[in-house]
Amino acid sequence: MMIAHHFGENLYAFLKFNKVMDVSLGSFDNKDNKDNKDNKDNKDNKGSGSSNLRSQLSRPPAPRTSPGPAVGVQSVRCYSHGSHETDEELDARWVTYFNKPDIDAWELRKGMNTLVGYDLVPEPKIIDAALRACRRLNDFASAVRILEVVRDKAGPHKEIYPYVIQELRPTLNELGISTPEELGLDKV
């Protein structure tokens, strides 16, 4: 690629350089891959092989017969115009994900990691489903970590985390999960 750039991306000069340096282009079809001896002895033959390709490409390009551009270029912008997921659909998708009866510890962590990557604080019903998944897996540490992550995602908005804990209190009591504050982890 650097050599092609040196020649100003002029294909003709690049191929001439390759011919002078005797760089083999290799056979492009696997049918006639027998030592390339037949193709070297018979360069003017119109058969397939690397020497035929080299002879075709080493000629200067034919003059253009049409006055228009060789390739039509269309300007395309890469916007995502797909369907946008509503908040309710997002919540339902994550609740369904965490409510899978056969969810394993890796899927739980992967789901929480993906969810935390979003620019939002998860709704209490999503966290409820994740905490119930932790209980099914008998993973108390992940349950406490989920609550810590929710507290961190709330950031400077001090009213969000207490609201989430208030909404989750019945679930926390039912499952026997302590908050990080009850465990003294907020002071560490």
TrEMBL record:
Residues 28-74 are annotated as: Disordered. It is a peripheral membrane protein. One of its GO terms (molecular function) is metal ion binding. GO terms for biological process: mitochondrial electron transport, cytochrome c to oxygen. One of its GO terms (cellular component) is mitochondrial inner membrane. Belongs to the cytochrome c oxidase subunit 5A family. This is Cytochrome c oxidase subunit 5A, mitochondrial. The lineage of its organism: Eukaryota, Metazoa, Chordata, Craniata, Vertebrata.
